[in-house]
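Open question from group meeting: does this chain pack into something compact, or does most of it stay loose? Before anyone orders reagents, we agreed to write out a predicted structure and look at it together. Recording both the input and the output here so the notebook holds the full record.
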Amino acid sequence: MIQIKSKREIELMRCAGRIAANALAAAGRAVAPGITTGELNDLIKRAIEKDGAYPSFLGYAGFPGAACISINDEVIHGIPGPRKICEGDLVKIDVGATYQGYIGDCANTFAVGKVSDEAQRLIDVTRQCFYEGIKYARVGNRVSDISHAIQTCVEANGFSVVRKYIGHGVGAQLHEEPEVPNFGKPGCGPRLVSGMTIAIEPMVNQGVYTVKELSDGWTVKTRDGKLSAHYENSVLITEDGPEILTLADTM
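Structure tokens returned:
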């Protein structure tokens, strides 16, 4: 069942979203050659806890980290640890923060130093496709209108969109209804109504869209070993249009 949020719940989600976004922004500023994914994880955990929340991912279905940190051909769910980040890497960081029972969920892809033109284009297109999708996150549209816009943008730029993993509702639970795929025909799925909160998260591959899960039970890589990028925000559907809940403080 899709949960329609009350004014109080929406305000708590704004707080959770801001905390998650601030932690993600802090991690992005710290990304540099030589830092480990474990050090980034610790930074994110401290930032979330400092703001009175806790990391939504820590212990979720047994996940051992406070954030998912995935590099290059790793798509999502990378486990933080001793791995050092290198010049030219693409680093995907996915952060969730739970504040008074409600969750903000966001992700971004960071280029480490100088990357190839194609790698930078992959990052830029992935972010662009989120914003193409959110144009359709309006009352009266259907979930798949978002999905179709994302897929159209991805494929028009010569990339592929991951099918196995998708966006989702978010609120008191990290994953709620409805499912929000990044592909599909328009005009399908649940109708969008005011008070819905969803996580829209394009996962875009340089090569084929197929992926594989590693033996650690978490890390997902592209099937062909080519690069992947990820961009995500938690979004509130309102009568006046979509509101991004996971925006970092500008001060």
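Observations to bring back to the group:
The chain has a mean pLDDT of 98.
The radius of gyration is 17 Å.
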